[in-house]
Amino acid sequence: MSALAKFIPHWQLYPASEFSNFTAHWDALNQELYQSHPLLDSRFVQALLHHFGNPQVVLVVYPENAVQKGNFLFVQSKNALIWTTFLPTQAQIAPLLCGNPQALQRVLADLPGSAVSFDILCQDPHYSFPAHALAHATTLIHATTINIDLQGNFEDYWQQRSKNLQQNIKRYFNRLKKHQLNYRLNVVSKPDELSLALDRYGELEIKSWKGRAGTAIHSENVQGQFYGAVMSSFAASEQAEIVELYLDDQLAASRINILNKDMLVILKTTYSEPLAHLSPGRLLLYLLIKREFSLKRVNSIEFYTSATPEQISWSSGQRNIEHRTTYQSAKVKLLHNGLKRIKASFNH
Predict the structure, then answer these.
(1) Is the pTM of this model over 0.70?
(2) Three-state SS string across the chain, please?
(3) CATH superfamily of the domain spanning 152-298
(4) What integer is the mean pLDDT of 196-200?
(5) Hey, where are the domains in the chain?
(6) Domain BioF2-like acetyltransferase: where (predicted)?
């Protein structure tokens, strides 16, 4: 029996390893709901599961029908009473697709054990179901992310930035002239070249604070292998690139991007710490934005970061990434919130 033939009007649970049986329907729903958001693309999700998944991760499916779209969630048990979405740190938003949010209220009854609440983590309100669709729910702001709208031209966008930002970037370019340094942008998108560019990216990170903290990516660790898999799979459809800034012949900064026809998503960024006084990361961002305005290939640049005030100064839009929790009943919600207040009072 095929995976799709198993659909009945209840949530169905599968090992996450069976996701390959559902990728065609997953991608079709992602296209219908969110114009094939890159972070919800099955290739990105497959890489997350392969490199950061565990046997406890469950694929939970609610079937589509002639009236309602379907739902796909990846969940895992937090404890005997609480379930949560699968969210490794490399996922800026939790991988789930929900065309029928009303059915989320029924998922607690179909999960194993005695689940009383379900944490739906890191939801982008522009690319998720409406929060008000959940009954007995709470919403917590996790982070503020930013984007740049690429409609119009670069000159108008730049004139709308703060005078402080404009003057800083001008000063950085003047500093290059003072040191007699030439700059150039190198965009790598060919599949056979991306792995080398990713190695160069890793070499910068290893020499940075991330290397000292043990969080830098390189070809021998799981993070590097994850990004290698993502870039390889997206490069096959010309949806991956690494943009590098060189000062003379020295790599100064690098950004890892994936894209679709609507948006470019910046996955990671790094720079050479010995060149920090030249602000190569900001110079690369300026040149990248200018390039995207000229290419007119996407409508926005999405950062998916916990934005600082300095990062917000570059943006034309901001929105909050949300954690949402739905409870079995209003009584459970009231009890849980009461216990949280008591715990908070003891912590003070």
Answers:
(1) yes
(2) CCCHHHCCCCCEEEEHHHHHHCHHHHHHHHHHHHCCCHHHCHHHHHHHHHHHCCCCCEEEEECCCCCCCCEEEEEEECCCCEEEECCCCCCCCCCCEECCHHHHHHHHHHCCCCCCEEEEEEECHHHCCCHHHCCCEEEEEEEEEEEEECCCCHHHHHHCCCHHHHHHHHHHHHHHHHCCCCEEEEEECCHHHHHHHHHHHHHHHHCCHHHHHCCCCCCCCHHHHHHHHHHHHHHCCCCEEEEEEEECCEEEEEEEEEECCCEEEEEEEEECHHHHHHCHHHHHHHHHHHHHHHHCCCCEEECCCCCCHHHHCCCCEEEEEEEEEEECCHHHHHHHHHHHHHHHHHHC
(3) Gcn5-related N-acetyltransferase (GNAT) (3.40.630.30)
(4) 97
(5) 4-144+319-347, 152-298
(6) 165-305
